[in-house]
Amino acid sequence: MYIPGEPIGQEIIHTHRHHSFGATKKILVIDDDEEILMLNQSLLALDDYTVFTALSGEAALALLDIIPRPDLILLDFQMEEMSGPEFLFKLEKLRPDILNKVPVVFLSAMDRIPETRAVGFIRKPFDLENLLTSVRGFIENKTIHEIHKH
Question: pLDDT per residue over 128-140, tens digit each?
Answer without folding.
Answer: 888 899 999 999 8
